Amino acid sequence: MEGTAGTCSISGEVGPVTQGNGNGKLTLTAKDFKTDQEVRWCPGCGDYAILAAVQGFMPELGIERERLVFISGIGCAARFPYYMQTYGIHSIHGRAPAIATGLATTRPDLSVWVVTGDGDALSIGGNHLIHALRRNVNLKILLFNNQIYGLTKGQYSPTSEPGKVTKSTPYGSLDYPFNPVSLAIGAEATFVARSIDTDRKHLTEVLRRAAAHRGTAFVEIYQNCNIFNDGAFDAVKEHQENQIRLEHGKPIRFGAECEKGVRQRPDGSCELVDVAEVGESALLVHDEHHEKSSLAFALSRIAHTPSGPAPFGVFRDVERPVYDELMAEQIESATAERGTGDLRELLHAGDTWVI
Amino acid sequence: MAKAVERVNQVTIRFAGDSGDGMQLTGARFTSETAVLGNDLSTLPDFPAEIRAPAGSLPGVSGFQIHFADHDILTPGDRPNVLVAMNPAALKTNVRDLPKGGTLIVNADAFSEKNLDKAGYASNPLEDGSLADYQVHAIPLTSMTLEAVKESGLTSREAERCKNMFALGLMSWLYTRPTETTVEEIRQKFLKRPEIADANIKAFQAGYAFGETTESFAVQYEVAPARMAPGVYRNVTGNQALALGLVAASVKSRLPLFLGAYPITPASGILEELAGYKHFGVRTFQAEDEIAAVGAALGASFGGSLGVSTSSGPGIVLKQEAIGLAVTLELPLVVLDIQRAGPATGMPTKPEQGDLLNVMFGRNSESPVPVVAAATPGDCFDATIEACRIALKYRTPVFMLSDAYLANGSEPWLIPDPDTIPDIGVEFADTPNQDGAFMPYLRDPETLARPWAVPGTPGLEHRIGGLEKADVTGNVSYDPDNHDYMVRVRAQKVAGIAGDIPELEVDHDEGAKLLVLGWGGTYGSITAAVRRVRRDGGKIAQAHLRHLNPFPRNLGDVLRTYDRVLIPEMNLGQLLKLVRAEFLVDAAGYNRVRGLPFTSSELAEAMEAML
Fold first, then answer.
1. Which residues of B touch A37 (CB under 8 A)?
2. A328: buried, middle or exposed (CB in 10 Å: 19+, 13-18, 0-12)?
3. Count of A–B CB contacts within 8 Å?
4. Which of B73, B313, B561, B609 has the fewest CB neighbours in a 10 Å radius?
5. Is A340 buried (19+), middle (13-18) or exposed (0-12) by CB count in 10 A?
6. Chain B residues in contact with A130 (beta carbon < 8 A)
7. ipTM above 0.90, yes or no
8. So what's the pLDDT on residue A351?
9. Do A331 and B278 touch (CB under 8 A)?
10. Average predicted confidence (pLDDT) for chain B
11. CA-nearest residue of chain A to B248?
């Protein structure tokens, strides 16, 4: 993929998938991943599009269905596992990353996916999310962010914009929201990306990249709740020129004519500039593999909530030892050193005496 | 010249000092020497939750009591015969438990004006005659220790810290304990600091030699080995036995062990112990919180591991939602509750039996969970294996109750032959079970357990979850009759375990009208009290519950056999409530929540009052 000066693609490439984790011999189709259960999200919900994208790209992973597991917590998004013809658990509010951690840590042969929402992941389950990220457990975490509590019928969420008027905040919410991408980067995530429910191509490519990542992959997906928070992402959906597509190794440009770009200030923060004014050479060249997370973090701060230009794509993709592999290594080396544990010997350890 | 040796049947010694004085280590070493000698023994560590309360202060006192004998004993002893007090605060907080005529060994060097003041003594008890009722040995332990180790090259602070070994040496001489294991243990402990090892050994030997030469002690005591069942023994604490039980359950089920835990007193020792057993394939996960700990264990169970989580009361309440999920997912999960005094943070290092009703009912809606309890430190091994057996066979979360006393207390343990531990293996589902399809909630007609199909098994892909499920298919269901059925069948599954556990055994006296019914860590105190009542001619029956849910199938019949039933508990009557509700039996309780095990004398009194 060659970057061409003066162009930028709205449907921009997310970047090549460097490795797969399946055997590539399977010939499954999207249909094979559908269950016999009736999908019960509200008509028009963004979750349908995400489900279709996931079911659509699963076959190309080349992983047998029995080795795929979807684990969710509570919320609209959390119904997801019921619709995937794989193994799955619809668990309790916020705890999916914890449950998935136990599974992934004991079963490195599985591909474990966590499906969560903004309330589930960032409010009640915030602790589990950040700790899964820092441990780099082999999990793919998909956060459907609709900036609202849908299943409980419309209270503000930890990603709702300040002042949000909802049933629980008739005078406007007082909370300052999380930026999920910033949070994930701050929590030492090794893979952080953002996509949007309606752009199947981009979403699919981001999911591919996430699937190929070793360790925890965190993907925020802007998802429209047409019942309780319709149009939350119109600033980037209706105005695609506001989508800043991140492409590794390329100067960051956006806008209808790619006339705008992102420049890094001396203090490390990012600003939006007119390319004509500053020249392309002044633009920030995206480096998703940068050793330090500061660059990805600065990019994530361009838009705290999507009310104007906002970055999409892979913010960060670095390698760090994976938790379950490290644990397996400890077991292997302890066994190599001490031999496979012998129960009789263990019971007789320490001072013993005979009567 | 060798001193006179007097033979005694049993002795109770309490070591008490500042938290930083190493009293737990001293007690543990004396215990080990005693075990190797072949006495029966029982120990009670009693320490504050603060790691280092202000030095010399009353709250900073740490104690360790050991009861050892030439016969079978059951408790760490009601009151010590000998009190070793390393400072005025230790004397002040412990001397009230020493009977008149008891032996008191104090570190005279520690009775400075400053320390006396910190302990609230207006005058020096070593000089004001207030200890006249005791046989007092005021020994300058600190200065003699410093003298013994002066050539070791240690700082004065390091040298002073060897004084507990001087005291241990003296006590080892006084009770003719073997010393080799202690010397070896000190060497091992300070492998990287040989100069510290040498100094501690010197202090230990100096203490021993002091006993031989001083005129302060005229007599040396001997307690002959106890007659116990033949076999190989070791000393275990409850937490050690529990950890060993988990490894044994993993071996005997051929399932890898996964422990999710968050550090909490008094359960942390289990996590620490198991973390060293990686060569058994044990995975220990120190989670970010109690909820994640149990959640990860449940996730591991879904994947085919033996999923276990350990905690104590405050952590257990946090785990209850996930345990409720395990009830409805019908996956094996073992949760070990090392009970401590509550509510809230309570007294973290002190035992209580206050969690019984919480583990029975502390979840939303109808969510039955089997409950077993350990009776003694060594019994934690068997109780843990039993909890794992039930969890695996019936695909259910199971609670095992221990407490702070069992966790830290120790006793000689007849090491079981691994070949005699029953196999608790289970079979995973590997083929469709109904017309070519897999029905995750199609139950075994006998156990009512559902099939355990682990990810990775082709063709058995299925989804489970916290929403109510339709019978057989496991699909989400809001059908009223289905919900009523599922609630009942889950209850029936747990109740049915009664057919798979032993009947309650009663230790009955001909003509006894009073039954004493206990559960958990009070076994030793209750049994010792029953012996005392019988020795005094009282007729009494005793039974102790291993299974609290379901109860043994004959419990109702047993209760109705007696005119009176007494249920001693270290709570305000929790088993009492269950028994009265279940069997309409007018049982009476004996309830104390002092954060200390019952003394056998108080229980004997309560029993005699009801004979």
1. 475-476
2. middle
3. 201
4. B609
5. exposed
6. 288
7. yes
8. 82
9. yes
10. 96
11. A343
